[in-house]
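All the exercises in this workshop are built on plain-text protein records. An example says more than a description, so a record of this kind follows:
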Amino acid sequence: MKRLSFGALAISLAISAPAMAQTAPSAAPAAQPQPGAPASAPAVDARSAASDASATVTVGMPVKDNTGVAIGTVSSVQPGPNGAPTATITMGTKVFSVGTDTLAVSGGAATVNASKTQIEGMLPK
């Protein structure tokens, strides 16, 4: 089972692609790099993306990439190293974790702000 650290993937996804949808400019602060993460790694901040504010990330929830393609499922939600909720996502035989605050939730699915190809490129081979 292959894993990418929460911090490295979160940072990787935030920088790699613009917010999925914006209705107005966001005043939210930019995502800060996690200690130990590569300086050049991109990151995701889905807080500015369209999302159902009352929805939460749950085990078994489908996960889509930023093109709308289903790429996996949430296999667990637990506190991460910093105590914030972290979703572990299973994508075929690969597994990675991201903060639940980096996922947009709408229509019963969580969306990560990167394509499947981008995510696969960030995971260890």
In short: The helical segments are 6-16, 116-122. Residues 1-17+57-125 form a domain with the SH3 type barrels. fold (CATH 2.30.30.240). The longest helix spans residues 6-16.
